[in-house]
């Protein structure tokens, strides 16, 4: 198999930035640095940023694909193509509150394609990586349901989690104040499931208690949570002050105003902030918040446009940080030898995507040219 040589790009990793080459062998990153490998296919990345593929851990669906509804591979395959063309190479399909039979049916349907190895919906079309499932609900506060149907909310009890959670569950959003003793948090920790506080009416003290019990993430910070108030800081205040908590945020300018995103970053720092889209088949409609219509590459550009963080910092929050949260940063969301070759090439001036390489294969945004060195 020919190797890919990504030549002369401005490579961004979590620890450094430099203009150099990147060698891909098969579906893995082989080396970073000047390279003169023979029999390679060269991708010209001069005047371009070279970054890891983006990783969105809150994806409810998109145009023509609805993870809330009955699933089929045709719609998921088409949705995957649109995500990959936008530089999103990994997602957690997110199943929101609903009838338990439907939740389990969709969970079981997705099992066929869950996991890190690249899967394909057909001979020609790859599917975006899906390392596991994010359950957003059903153990949420009836006081902060958002669009989650209240008739399907469940108490936060171990028996409910045992019915729903399996080895493919990577993340669960829940109202942790419904589990004051932390029994459910401990159960999920034993199952290697990350817990995120969200759709919660927790007080400052209740959130502090949940974080002390092991909850380390907040779902779409500021949304479906008590507002930050000068006398009642609530769960958001607790998350902002806890150095161990990672805050997810939707950077579309609608769910959260840009100055509030800036406040979040100043409080949490780049290392403890994660960009998500909460993209849904319905999306934002007439100003309403029913999921979003945002794709993660636009979120990265928004952060830069709002002058809140640098491009490298925005990419980190949309790739490396979520991968770290789930213990996957050696394989995805990173440019490092041994990681999957999921790579995005961006024009340095416009920040538009010029090329996407997924699982070591060029996705034909721009033609590569064969080069024999």
Overview of the structural elements:
The chain has 373 residues and is of the alpha/beta class. It folds into two domains: 3-51 and 334-371, Urease, subunit C, domain 1; 54-325, Metal-dependent hydrolases (TIM Barrel), CATH 3.20.20. Helix content is 24%, strand content 26%. It has helices spanning 73-85, 100-110, 158-164, 183-190, 204-212, 234-241, 258-268, 296-305, 311-317, 320-325, and strands spanning 3-12, 17-25, 28-32, 40-44, 48-52, 54-59, 61-62, 65-66, 88-96, 119-120, 126-127, 133-136, 169-174, 194-197, 217-218, 246-249, 273-275, 343-347, 353-358, 361-362, 369-371. The strands form four sheets. Strands 1, 2, 3, 4, 5, 18, 19, 20 and 21 form a nine-stranded mixed sheet that branches. An eight-stranded parallel sheet has the order 6-9-12-13-14-15-16-17. It has a two-stranded antiparallel sheet with strand order 7-8. The chain starts with a strand and ends with a strand.
């Amino acid at each position: 198999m020919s190797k890919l040589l990504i030549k002369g790009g401005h490579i961004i990793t979590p620890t450094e930035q430099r203009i150099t080459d990147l060698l891909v062998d098969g579906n893995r990153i082989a080396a970073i640095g000047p390279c003169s490998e023979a029999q390679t296919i060269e991708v010209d990345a001069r005047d371009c940023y070279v970054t890891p593929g983006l990783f969105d851990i809150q994806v409810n669906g998109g145009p023509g694909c609805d993870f809330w509804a009955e699933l089929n591979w045709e719609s998921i395959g088409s949705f995957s193509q649109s995500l990959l063309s936008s530089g999103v190479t990994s997602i957690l399909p997110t199943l929101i509150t609903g009838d338990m039979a439907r939740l389990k049916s969709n969970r079981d349907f997705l099992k066929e394609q869950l996991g890190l190895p690249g899967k394909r919906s057909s001979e020609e079309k790859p599917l975006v990586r899906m390392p596991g499932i994010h359950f957003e609900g059903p153990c949420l506060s009836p006081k902060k349901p958002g669009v989650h149907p209240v008739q399907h909310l469940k108490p936060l009890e171990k028996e409910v989690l045992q019915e729903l959670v399996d080895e493919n569950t990577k993340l669960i959003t829940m109202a942790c104040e419904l589990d004051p003793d932390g029994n459910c948090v401990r159960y999920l920790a034993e199952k290697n499931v990350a817990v995120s506080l969200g759709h919660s009416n927790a007080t400052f003290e209740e959130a502090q208690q949940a974080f002390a019990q092991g909850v380390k993430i907040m779902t779409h910070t500021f949304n479906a949570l008590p507002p930050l108030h000068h006398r009642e800081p609530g769960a958001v205040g607790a998350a902002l002050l806890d150095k161990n908590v990672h805050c997810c945020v939707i950077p579309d300018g609608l769910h959260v105003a840009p100055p509030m995103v800036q406040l979040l970053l100043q409080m949490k720092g780049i290392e403890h902030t994660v960009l998500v889209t909460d993209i849904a088949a319905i999306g934002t409609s007439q100003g309403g918040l029913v999921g979003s219509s945002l794709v993660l590459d636009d979120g990265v550009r928004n952060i830069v446009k709002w002058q809140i963080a640098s491009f490298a910092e925005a990419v980190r929050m949309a790739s490396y940080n979520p991968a770290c949260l789930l213990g996957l940063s050696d394989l995805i969301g990173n440019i490092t030898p041994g990681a999957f070759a999921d790579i995005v090439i961006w024009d340095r001036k416009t920040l538009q995507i010029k090329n996407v390489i997924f699982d070591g294969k060029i996705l034909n945004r721009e033609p590569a040219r064969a080069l024999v060195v």
